[in-house]
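Researcher: Please predict.
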Amino acid sequence: MTKNDVQLENGYTRIANTILEVMATVKLSPTQHRVLYIVWRYTYGFGRKHHDLSLSFLTKATGCSFRQVQREVKSLLENKILIEVENKSRTRKIGFNKKFNEWTVDKDTIDNIDIDKSDNDKSDNDKTDKPIIDKSDKYKVDKTDNQERNNKEKYKEMLIDDFFEKIWKLLPKKKGKAKVSDKQKKILFNKVGEKDLVKAIKLFKEDMRGKDKQFIPYGSTFLNSGYVDYLEEAKRKEENLVKPTGKIKYITDEDIQEEIDQKHKEKIRKAEEVKKKITYYDG
């Protein structure tokens, strides 16, 4: 498929007409519109309500600056146009709030919106808009499936690039970036993971502390092969951590009182011993 081959069978994003009509009237910044297009593309475009969309990912997808995206996403969240979902991972999980009456931006305009439902109120007997699908259209379905797979692959590539940029910033000597191949980036993303790689980099930086800069390996050298030894070292350190053994004993009030009595008795015993050693002289 070429860039100019724009057809529905190559994939499309389902958005309610009402949303498009509302968006045409609400006053938003150009960057906010661009962010919303990407949010729709990677949520509604994949048949989901929300998804992990980091600021770095949105920055790359929109072509806007990081600070600009950060500011406008914050504004969209504050105005309840975007909603943030609790997420255990580090990435931001957001979605579009289709309940536009909850939006706090441009309220006067929203409250006076007159939605035209004429396109949605056609009779069920009107068959002119219903698609007729037969065996001859099977190739179109297959083509659409292929496009969805391609979209997912492109999305994963953006995640890998985002991951790589985060890792690269942590390295002590940021040289040789172009020498880390796409294949190696995928290995680091899929087989190593951010959590373990960050641990390896931490040990690497500790090992390099105090060394002359000329003797510190390039970032590319570490990511292509050097990280392996530090990964193994990180795992060994975790395995050598002392783990509690035996059964858990719950402390009761009686146990506490017994401990106090024991200490009290010990004090009395020591006092008696000292008393015996004292010699009294009669003046």
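Model: The beta strands are 50-52, 82-84, 93-96.
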